[in-house]
Amino acid sequence: MKKNILIFIILLSISFLILFFANFTVTKEKVLIIANTEKNTEKVLSVPDNKFILSFIHSVHHTPVYEYFEINQDNTLIMKEIRYYSLGVGMPFTDEGGIFSNENGEFVLKFNREFDKLFMRISPIPQHAIKIGDKIYPLLSFAEPEQQIKIVASEKWLFKKRNN
User: How far is CA 93 from CA 64, 85, 144, in A?
Assistant: First the structure.
């Protein structure tokens, strides 16, 4: 009797694994880890193409700023480009070792600035977000206004649903 139960459990387990892996695959993927340093909480965001945009509203100019990042093989965050609409306080106005241009009224600075991690104090101004592909993650969903977050890149093994 015990032998039959054991065989049944083994067959059931094998059937489950076959069904599971027929519908899911295991992949190693780049992720952003958003840590709220004051609440000791973390959220993990998948970054399948290793690129993301950090956007915010400039606190003085009240205009949008877009910082374009890539994640290197060693999980370094590389700021590739920054786009903004107003020169002034805290915004670059020279090439800063990169290429500075004006494209139809939008200031563009292209360079390769490396960061191991990014620290940010969350603003109460709406529209501060991380964009990954078509998904937008408001920064206020990670922390309350004036709290600090830390952004680092890593790799994680993830289960992904197969596209049948």
Answer: 16, 11, 31
Check whether 140 has a pLDDT greater than 80.
yes
Q: What is the pTM of this model?
A: 0.81
Nearest to 73 by CA among 25, 134, 114: 114
Q: What backbone torsions phi and psi does residue 20 show, to the nearest 5 degrees?
A: -60, -55
- Strand 77-84 vs strand 148-161: parallel, antiparallel, or unpaired? unpaired
Structure tokens at 153: 């890149």
Which residue shows structure tokens 């998948």?
A: 46
- Residue 57 backbone dihedrals phi, psi, to 5 degrees: -100, 125
Q: What is the mean pLDDT of residues 15-42?
A: 85
Cα angle value 38/43/44 (rounded, 5°): 145
Interatomic CA distance for residues 163 and 121, integer angstroms = 39
pLDDT tens-digit series, residues 59-90: 777 889 999 999 999 999 999 999 988 877 76
Distances (CA, A) of 57 to 12, 45, 60, 61, 125: 54, 22, 9, 8, 7
Rounded to an integer, what distance in angstroms lies between the CA atom of residue 125 and that of residue 149?
A: 16
Other C-beta atoms closer than 10 Å to the C-beta of 13 total 10
- Residue 1: what pLDDT? 67
